[in-house]
């Protein structure tokens, strides 16, 4: 419906994109000096800091940032017995931030990620690119060979069905990393000196039916569309694996996005990943995951959800049942994980009661 | 098995890659002056020129190129009544060249495609990049977020199953175009001035189960692996549509590659596409295709092939039956096309009898 303008002042873009509709979630165990570099891009936004490890430690946040901080004591206090679903001593704890946010969009970033430069030497505003990705549709049902057709200077190519050109709503924008690539421990050990120097100037939709390894280092998503699927699992303290938190969230999210007709994009923006984690420590965390994933991935590739799963919560509960039934045989860990998936949804719904939709900006800050 | 070197001289790379195992197929109606620009890259290879239109016209080929040329009279003489499956007055005739080749690999290019430059200004040897693509595996079963994992400086990322890291044989390498993008007539009409200036430095595998719009302008494939599926259909003279030749081949090829566990790559190399074809003429050729494709694509998305289809020919004959059964209802054209698909396979098998494998270089030119 076309209507005349009624408020010409509010339409002038004076505020950063989605300023009141997006939270930045950062899991950390140290002072957040890395925010200095991000100041021009992040300062207008609200931060949710999830402090991992010793809750008595004081985390310093540079002046001028608007933030709330949660440590383990806070998590236990807020969730009570349901806090068991939030990992401890692992960056998987970040998903607590997704749960307590009341915004429509989440951007999450690791504290060893710095601002990258594009090939012209310009600092990349990663958040701005994520917002572009998430606000424009995805194309999960047919591949466009010129990549994102909604980008300036691009379009759908010959042979692309016109009925599919409206695309699907974008639920996830997965960004990449220059410098230290996101390799597993065996690859780190074999290629200690490999650095990612290739800037690929593309954003693309991961097709429906295709799984991908989702990395949580530089990730944006629409909390309203997919939030309850972004559970980072049970990792770290007391658990048999680590470094599969984001992978788990990615597999579950992708299966549910495919079922609900939502899109997942990958590619731009890049951040600069400053420091490789210790490959020996990583191997210890990963080794069970490395063989379990050989069964987990076929499981997710074959997973289908019934038609009456019309909400993310319903999909996720259904998926938890399938995890218990099919992956419980692989290891008792998956029984525990399936239970935690249910607890996560219960906690999510408690903190996000129906009828309390995410805050949407009305254009007046 | 590791064995000691026996011929150290032959191992020195003195000849261009796949020199005796690859034919370049060019459909044309004009003198091939465009080859001058390609001379440093194409001259070592054998060309198969398929002359379209008036067979009495003399096509000039620049000196120094090794070629064979077929006009309509040749096609009729060689194929007899089966020549009906080869389109006339349409670049779809190029697939005759695939059939008469005796090499393992085909590269096909349009005569309005010039050498493009990479961002550093260096001339791109498109053929060399296609050969790299086709000689390294594909990854159709799981998406790698850092694109081609076999490329220098890249690898599989964390969370990529180790059992899938050997990849699948690559059957097709689909290259892209700078300058004039491959748009359909409606998009050409709406965006007459749009030029593709974005050089995306990536090669990626199109995942299993995902269709894509395959353009025949800049295309390489393994004839042994997928050749009989590369039929460009019935277009041009006497047919109700045009400009869907490569699309048709792409849909059939992708469904068969998915069934046989073969990979299809897209991305690099770029060529420089010099001249936009007339959008009004294109609209006339395309308009039936534009609504037919709304039924064709769901048909191919749903198509499955039975397990006993173990060769490309068997797959293709099975697909022709499904085309007749399912698309015959859309228009009688598809009945005719389904018959032509069968004729194509008969002609292919006649010119390529079993037991006469494609010539493979023994390393001695």
Automatic annotation (TrEMBL), chains A, B:
<dbReference type="GO" id="GO:0071669">
    <property type="term" value="P:plant-type cell wall organization or biogenesis"/>
</dbReference>
<keyword id="KW-0333">Golgi apparatus</keyword>
<dbReference type="Pfam" id="PF03214">
    <property type="entry name" value="RGP"/>
</dbReference>
<feature type="glycosylation site" description="N-linked (Glc...) arginine">
    <location>
        <position position="158"/>
    </location>
</feature>
<keyword id="KW-0961">Cell wall biogenesis/degradation</keyword>
<dbReference type="GO" id="GO:0005794">
    <property type="term" value="C:Golgi apparatus"/>
</dbReference>
<feature type="site" description="Required for activity">
    <location>
        <position position="158"/>
    </location>
</feature>
<keyword id="KW-0413">Isomerase</keyword>
<dbReference type="InterPro" id="IPR037595">
    <property type="entry name" value="RGP_fam"/>
</dbReference>
<dbReference type="GO" id="GO:0052691">
    <property type="term" value="F:UDP-arabinopyranose mutase activity"/>
</dbReference>
<dbReference type="GO" id="GO:0005829">
    <property type="term" value="C:cytosol"/>
</dbReference>
<dbReference type="InterPro" id="IPR029044">
    <property type="entry name" value="Nucleotide-diphossugar_trans"/>
</dbReference>
<protein>
    <recommendedName>
        <fullName>UDP-arabinopyranose mutase</fullName>
        <ecNumber>5.4.99.30</ecNumber>
    </recommendedName>
</protein>
<feature type="site" description="Required for activity">
    <location>
        <position position="165"/>
    </location>
</feature>
<comment type="function">
    <text>Probable UDP-L-arabinose mutase involved in the biosynthesis of cell wall non-cellulosic polysaccharides.</text>
</comment>
<dbReference type="GO" id="GO:0009505">
    <property type="term" value="C:plant-type cell wall"/>
</dbReference>
<dbReference type="GO" id="GO:0071555">
    <property type="term" value="P:cell wall organization"/>
</dbReference>
<keyword id="KW-0325">Glycoprotein</keyword>
<dbReference type="GO" id="GO:0033356">
    <property type="term" value="P:UDP-L-arabinose metabolic process"/>
</dbReference>
<dbReference type="InterPro" id="IPR004901">
    <property type="entry name" value="RGP"/>
</dbReference>
<comment type="similarity">
    <text>Belongs to the RGP family.</text>
</comment>
């Amino acid at each position: 419906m076309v209507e005349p303008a009624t408020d010409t002042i509010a339409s002038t873009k004076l505020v950063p994109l989605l300023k009141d509709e997006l939270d930045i979630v950062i899991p950390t165990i140290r002072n957040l000096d890395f925010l200095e570099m991000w100041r021009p891009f992040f300062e207008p936004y609200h931060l949710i800091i999830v402090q991992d490890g010793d809750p008595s430690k004081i985390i310093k946040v540079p002046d001028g940032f608007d933030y709330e901080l949660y440590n383990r004591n806070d998590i236990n206090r807020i969730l009570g017995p349901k806090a068991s679903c939030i990992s401890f001593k692992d960056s998987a704890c970040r998903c607590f931030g997704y749960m307590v946010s009341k915004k429509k969009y989440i951007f999450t970033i690791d504290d060893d990620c710095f601002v990258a430069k594009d090939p012209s030497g310009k600092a990349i505003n990663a958040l701005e690119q994520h917002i572009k990705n998430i606000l424009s549709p995805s194309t999960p049902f047919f591949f466009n060979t010129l990549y994102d057709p909604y980008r300036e200077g691009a379009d759908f190519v010959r042979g692309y069905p016109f009925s599919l050109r409206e695309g699907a709503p974008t639920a996830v924008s997965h960004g990449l990393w220059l410098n230290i690539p996101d390799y597993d421990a065996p690859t780190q050990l074999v290629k200690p000196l490999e650095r990612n120097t290739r800037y690929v100037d593309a954003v693309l939709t991961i097709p429906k039916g295709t799984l991908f390894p989702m990395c949580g280092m530089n990730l944006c998503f629409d909390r309203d569309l997919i939030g309850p699927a972004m559970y980072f699992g049970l990792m770290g303290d007391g658990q048999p694996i680590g470094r599969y938190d984001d992978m788990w969230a990615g597999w579950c999210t992708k299966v549910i996005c495919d079922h609900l007709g939502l899109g997942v994009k990958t590619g731009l923006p890049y951040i600069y990943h400053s420091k490789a984690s210790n490959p020996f420590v990583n191997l210890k965390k990963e080794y069970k995951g490395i063989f379990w994933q050989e069964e987990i991935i076929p499981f997710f590739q074959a997973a289908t959800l019934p038609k009456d799963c019309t909400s993310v919560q319903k999909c996720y509960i259904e998926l938890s049942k399938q995890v218990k039934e099919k992956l419980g045989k692989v290891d008792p860990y998956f029984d525990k994980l399936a239970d935690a998936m249910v607890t996560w949804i219960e906690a999510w719904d408690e903190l996000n009661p129906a009828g309390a939709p995410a805050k949407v900006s009305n254009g007046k800050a």
